[in-house]
Amino acid sequence: MNISRWFGLHVRNRTAMLKRKYRESEETMGKIVVAEFVSLDGIIENPAWTAPFWNDAIADYKSDEMRQVDALLLGRTTYEGFASAWPTHPEEGWYKDKMNSMPKHVASSQSELEWNASRIEGDLADSIAKLKAEQNLLVFGSGKLVHFLNAHGLIDEYRLVVYPVLLGKGDRLWESVDAEATLELSENRALDNGVLLTTYRVTAPAVVRPSFH
Predict the structure, then answer these.
(1) What is the pLDDT of residues 77-109, one digit of tens each?
(2) Which of 78, 129, 173, 198 is the most exposed, fewest CB within 10 Å of its CB?
(3) pTM, rounded to two decimals
């Protein structure tokens, strides 16, 4: 067997093994989905810049996302912004109703929370893992929390709406990565306005790097 064929088989076999082990460990659990509006240079902060691009296709994508989850998982800053905006949001309909009524689990030191929210108690990683075992959780914004979830291997899916803008400054989805993961592109749709609707599923908690020694 020549080296290039051996290399290809080795990588595929190793990747398949990691994916199989990961799927087996996730079969009986809910999932954590991270949903972000992202500029082309990776910025997620204060996404008011997304408004000129909003259309029915993005609305449908976000609606499908909301239908599949049981509760929100939020960092403190995102929770505070949402809790002040959504109860009086001008939008009417089932999406607003679900946003306001569904449970919210918040990573915060603040004990008094409103908007049907509760603080995550105890060890954060263990407590979130227990919540995940019981329900499907959706993360909006919450950049620091996303980094924490990735570092502890708790994210199952990324739903990224990527916008054709370069912002230069602001909080980025990834400044650095604390834990590796292999992802599978399960959805990718390019809209006429240049926006990409993408869904990546985490298939393994590591990246295969074959050794040639």
Answers:
(1) 999 999 999 999 998 999 999 999 999 999 998
(2) 129
(3) 0.84
